[in-house]
């Protein structure tokens, strides 16, 4: 893309983002909100039948039966929140149908006592996408069909910005006072896939659009990478989030140190991604620590299925054979646990069957 276009886009995004701080929640308001929620625990959720965000919410593949069945299992484990990814193509191709299906999803989740954390944009995995039939999973490949939103096409088609603004504002306005929605996660892992600071203009804009709507739920965008190329992104995310969210897949010592650092901001904390068995981020050690420190715990993920997240990020198994050590996920698609001992830990930490 021409340098002049980049500069013009950056200027437009910056001007729009000037409003972002005006309606930010005070630390007191955020902490009061958090105190009313009870301890937050749950998973990043895709039904086993969906390879990505599109397959989860398109009319042809919106699997209400699977969602109902799987969220019932989540409730039985004591989970209270699911983090769910959206995509703007779902809105541009079927605006009213998409919103109707979001409402149906929320009705199912609410029936099982589970609130939802919706995610708008995402810099992870595949850069191209299209509505309609989604690809079959690649055997043994982690998240082979997951798609970014909006991806790098925003640089070549800057008019996409107008569409994205209308999309974000419409979804937020529709559910702005819906108590089934816990929090709006505006941008997942901005800067991933070597985008770095190129993601900052859209990050600033989505906060500004959300502040203009001013929903009753808090806003956030989680910090996830502490490298020097993410410094400006991290500063903006921490300065503009009502509730601080973050990702951490490392050992307990590293995770605990990060919590201590983030608590200096004086705001509630929710870990929106953790639990990678190979990395030593385990329910047995991380989940109790998060509860002790009063940090929300949303692991990746819940049900083994077409996302293939039982396989590690960087270790494909071309045969598709089940790995002895699952990377993510808790249950098989029939509801049986990968590890019964993990289930015992999860239920115990969630206080399932005990007075809280």
Main attributes of the structure:
single chain, 356 residues, alpha/beta, TIM Barrel, 13 helices, 39% helix, globular, Glyco_hydro_5
| Structural classification | alpha/beta
Strand content: 5-15%
Integer-rounded radius of gyration: 19 Å
Average pLDDT: 94
List the total number of helices.
13
Q: In the CATH hierarchy, what is the superfamily?
A: Glycosidases
Low-confidence stretches: none
- Biggest β-sheet: strands ordered side by side in the sheet: 5-4-3-2-1-8-7-6
> Span from first to last CA?
55 Å
* Total count of domains: 1
Topology summary:
Elements: H1 3-16, H2 27-37, E1 41-44, H3 53-57, H4 64-76, E2 81-85, H5 88-93, H6 95-111, E3 115-122, H7 153-156, H8 160-174, E4 181-188, H9 200-213, E5 219-220, H10 231-240, E6 244-247, H11 252-262, E7 269-273, H12 283-292, E8 296-300, H13 340-349
Parallel strand pairs: 1-2, 1-8, 2-3, 3-4, 4-5, 6-7, 7-8
Helix pairs in contact: 1-9, 4-6, 8-9, 9-10, 12-13
């Amino acid at each position: 893309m021409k340098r002049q276009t980049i500069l013009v886009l950056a200027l437009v995004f910056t001007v729009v983002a000037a409003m972002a701080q005006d309606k930010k929640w005070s630390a007191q308001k955020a902490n009061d909100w958090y105190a009313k929620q009870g301890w937050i625990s749950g998973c990043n959720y895709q039904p086993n039948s969906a390879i990505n965000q599109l397959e989860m919410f398109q009319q042809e593949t919106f699997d209400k039966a699977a969602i109902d069945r799987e969220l019932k299992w989540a409730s039985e484990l004591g989970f209270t929140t699911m983090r769910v990814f959206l995509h703007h193509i779902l809105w541009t191709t079927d605006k009213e149908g998409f919103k109707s299906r979001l409402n149906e999803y929320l009705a199912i989740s609410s029936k099982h006592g589970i609130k939802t954390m919706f995610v708008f944009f995402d810099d992870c995995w595949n850069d191209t996408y299209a509505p309609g039939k989604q690809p079959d999973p690649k055997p043994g490949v982690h998240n082979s069909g997951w798609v970014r939103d909006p991806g790098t096409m925003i640089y070549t088609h800057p008019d996409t910005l107008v569409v994205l603004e209308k999309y974000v504002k419409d979804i937020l306005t529709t559910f702005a006072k819906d108590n089934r929605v816990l929090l709006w996660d505006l941008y997942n892992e901005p800067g991933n896939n070597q985008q770095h600071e190129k993601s900052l203009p859209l990050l600033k804009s989505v906060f500004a659009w959300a502040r203009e709507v001013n929903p009753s739920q808090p806003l956030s965008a989680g910090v996830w990478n502490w490298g020097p190329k993410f410094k400006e992104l991290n500063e903006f995310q921490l300065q503009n989030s009502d509730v601080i969210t973050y990702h951490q897949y490392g050992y307990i010592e590293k995770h605990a140190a990060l919590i201590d650092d983030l608590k200096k901001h004086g705001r509630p904390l929710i870990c929106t991604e953790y639990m990678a068995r190979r990395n030593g981020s385990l329910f047995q050690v991380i989940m109790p620590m998060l509860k002790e420190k009063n940090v929300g715990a949303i692991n990746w993920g819940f049900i083994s299925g077409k996302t293939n997240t039982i396989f590690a990020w960087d270790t494909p198994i071309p045969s598709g054979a089940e790995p002895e050590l699952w990377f993510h996920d808790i249950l098989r698609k029939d509801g049986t646990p990968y590890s019964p001992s993990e289930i015992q830990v999860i239920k115990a930490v969630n206080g399932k069957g005990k007075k809280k």
